[in-house]
Specification:
Five copies of one chain form a homopentamer.
Chain A (H helix, E strand, L loop, with lengths): L1 H21 L7 H6 L4 E9 L8 H18 L4 E6 L9 E7 L2 H13 L6 E10 L11 H6 L9 E9 L1 H5 L2 H15 L6 E7 L8 E7 L2 H12 L7 E4 L4 E5 L2 H9 L1
Helix pairs in contact in A: 1-3, 1-9, 3-9
């Protein structure tokens, strides 16, 4: 009952936010940013401070309206996705994923986000960056494996982000040895290709990891089986660090996130 | 004397809270959630902020009444258990264990909990997730061992949660070698089967551990002997991380916890 | 001079606190709790928050009077010792050591302590637990060594608490190999038996260490020589973690501690 | 629109700050400090506290004007560069790089910076120091390699700072073995010499790293390819720690930084 | 200009503080404490909280006057040195080094320091302890080496404190092997004996390190060359931890430090 009356209040608010949305610019070519190589993906996990919850309801709504404006303004250039981590990840409440052709555009968006009235309640707890690339090893894979990888994967609502650091031995291996191990890795992952969506970001040098792996699934048990399969191939022995932190959350549109934040 | 008069005050309060409870929905099928495979278990340890203790007594009671309402509302879908960690674990005061068939329901509950007036005083310090599964190795065990494992275990008041990460060698072992080691592990644990209740959650991929092990006992010395026995079997050499953090507390009903929090 | 006038103020206060003390219950059988096996020892290190120092003097005195009442109330069941860490340990100001036959009694005391007006200014930074046991290896030692171990050790004012985690190899060793190494360890420690008091707590499973070792001495150089001797025996190579954190402080009666806290 | 009106406001402000700048002293011999051996380079990453964002606009402008004065005052002695980390690095918002012939001059500047009204909102999160030296190994390189290294490198807008700690084996190697490995390292880096600017600081003893490597580039993908190449040479196996933390940001003049901070 | 007027203000203050100083007791036998074996050296690094900078100038001066009184009062018993870390070390602003024949005297001083109005703005971030001892290995060194070690070393203004933990292998080595390695270590250090002052504290058991090494120099490049030389000897391979944290700062008299703090 308490919850229901709160939700009623939010419904009105969303109407108002909807008006703001109507005037925003056309979105960037999201599909291209999300599928092409040479794109920078950035993951930023935020914690919301204790003061946010103490603001009165109209103030929070006003702040979230500005937030929405900031995000919409950048949809021309960037592909922005939002996630709710609260309850499923330690120390973080929100996750923002940004795809851009230049990292300085991502930075400008994040600076404006943090300068907004809502953003002043955010602390950055995790930043991951990576670059999408043409598949390194796939060209040498057998044709049937290449074909299997073309099938579409199902999506959300669960999203998991796992950063990986390879050991020094991995990088010292000749390319063909790494390719053979990656083929074994890919074959082990294949049974889960349909139920678990994967996306790989190359992070070496941009931070303290070599890869950022992004997963989306409706079936967490399938996701777990995928990771267990990957643990068993030889390439896994070259993971010096896997996760730590692992981010777990649910895909939420900005409007859905705003509904949670308005509570 | 000071303590006694405080306790008198709480007794009245609990009466009031009792009235709220009377109107809540029927509980979820707790037994099923707590015994079947394919259920997600989530452990969240919270620290209470310093401001909570500075609120006046009627405000705290009002906030705890809302807390109780939030928890009761979710008992339809979730099995929720509560624990007091304060004094026995570092950096955390409370532990909530939630069993659900979908992790997004757990998240919704935790989001509502943190949005409640009491929840705004909580900081999440640890989140563990895991999936219950049919026993992996038990089917191949000898019949007498299987039978011994069917006996009931005694419960509380002490609860201990130990996360475990296996090393890369463990996952590279063939299934039958792991099964043999797990049989040795199970036989080492058998003498403590009656006095120490155990429950296993598979965590790989959902966070930075492979297993979350939950223990409940009235005899902490028996629990310690169990862990010492398990340390001596070959499988223990594949624990890359064991504990760190280890959570230790006591099982408390929500009403008992509220009594402590109202102080 | 400033210090002296402050100390005058405290002297009066202690008189008042003395009155409160007079009405408290008879102490638990301290000697038994401190000497027998099967007793749980808990070490809790606290940091005092910045607000405490900003309270006016009469308020601090009033809060410390309540603190004294809380501690005295539990002396019936528990053996409680207090230490000053400030200046000698990082991140912590006070240490409380509690011996109890049941850990839930210790928890109840610590919960009441933290719910007291002074306790609301405390943050728990370290919690160690352990169980006292009959000496594991001593029964097999030669008689002269056993006799030497019966001599009394001198006490305080310095107290050092060092947690230890053994490696996996240690637990995999057969009992007689561990016994032989522990005899070498004990012989290396013997020259310091008189000047350095030692007490061992078995922590495995109750937290992320296997042993909590407590030392008391008036001669820190002798204590250091003891640790250097122990570093040289074979058993030391099985210490995966030694200290980190190491707690160093001085033994202080509750009244002495209150004098410091009232400043 | 909101953003645009803010930017209008800042434009005025910068005019005012411009007047202050006009009266400042002539800059230190920046070129010498940035190119010669025997110069100390210090990198300090700061986090801005939450209170800064809550100050009204005129106060922030006034504080930033003083900041500008402090920096200009030290340009006589020091080469000072500024960077924006926010959005691209965890836990830090700003980076200041200072070159000086004496580290005590750098300290005096940083003390005055932190004593300024803006500086009181800064928390130091990372400090790296290093000394520039004549190239250790280059004198023994073949002439064509030496020539290639003389070509100019392109600059910004991206800056990356990676600290490195070598292992004990590295330092135990004879000089000629290290020289041979460094030649292989240099050859691997050569293809990126034009697009990625590098500068090396020797840090051993001055902090917990042996080298601080500074990179500047307009092409982050080229930078990443450079690091991947360096990962594959034998010398990389002697990196005990590489990054952690890695700092990523964009080069910003003080005026550009002030524009961001005024928001 | 702003800075200059501030410094004028401080000059007056120092005059007032000078009067307080005039009435203090004669200093302890500093030379003995700083040169003899059997003395405890304690290093405490403090961070100053954000509130300190917000106090008005007269209040800060009043608080610093009390600070000066506290320090002077203990000069009878203790040798107290002060350092400025701000700008050169992470997370810490000040360093205090105390030499005492009993660690409880050091504790009493630090307790009084933290109880003073200025001390209430300090957070302890690092505490190192160690005992000075007669040189362990020097008696067996050749005479010419012994003679060379008797020459005086130059001092400040730079001070560096590096804690070291040896590995288990080191302690297991026979004394003569360690002596041979320490002779090689000493010979490697000899060329820097004149320009870099060194002092060694034995820390085993008193904290999580085995040695605290203190360096003072006017020539940081010589200091760095010294550490590089020491990295190349066999004994260095037994350093399990070297630094982390490394403290870097400048020697400042209490009056000089007060000048900085009054800003």
């Amino acid at each position: 009952m308490i919850m229901n009356s709160l939700r009623g209040g939010i419904a009105c608010v969303l109407f108002v936010l909807g008006c703001v949305t109507a005037s925003t610019a056309p979105a960037a070519d999201r599909d291209k940013l999300l599928s092409e190589p040479g794109v920078y993906g950035t993951f930023v996990a935020f914690r919301i401070d204790a003061d946010w919850g103490k603001l009165d309801h109209p103030t929070r709504i006003a702040h979230l309206t500005v937030l929405k404006g900031v995000v919409e303004q950048y949809r021309e250039k960037l592909a922005i996705d939002t996630y709710l981590l609260r309850g499923l990840s330690e120390h973080a409440d929100l996750l923002v994923r940004v795809h851009a052709t230049e990292l300085k555009d991502t930075q400008q968006f994040l600076v404006d986000l943090q300068a907004s009235p809502f953003g002043k309640h955010l602390t950055t707890v995790v930043v991951f960056h990576g670059l999408t690339k043409k598949a390194n090893y796939v060209p040498g894979f057998p044709d049937n494996l290449k074909n299997d990888l073309k099938a579409a994967s199902e999506s959300g609502p669960y999203a998991i982000v796992i950063p990986i650091r390879k050991d020094a031995d991995w990088w010292a291996l000749p390319q063909e040895k790494r390719a053979a191990m990656m083929q074994e890795h890919t074959e082990a992952a294949l049974p889960y290709h349909k139920t678990v969506k994967r996306k790989l970001y190359h992070a070496t040098g941009l931070e303290d990891f070599d890869f950022i792996t992004y997963f989306e699934t409706a079936k967490l048990d399938e996701f777990q089986s995928l990771i267990l399969s990957l643990n068993k191939v030889k390439e896994a022995r070259h993971n010096r660090r896997f996760g730590n932190p692992t981010l777990v959350g649910t895909v939420r549109s900005l409007d859905q996130l705003i509904e949670v934040l308005a509570q």
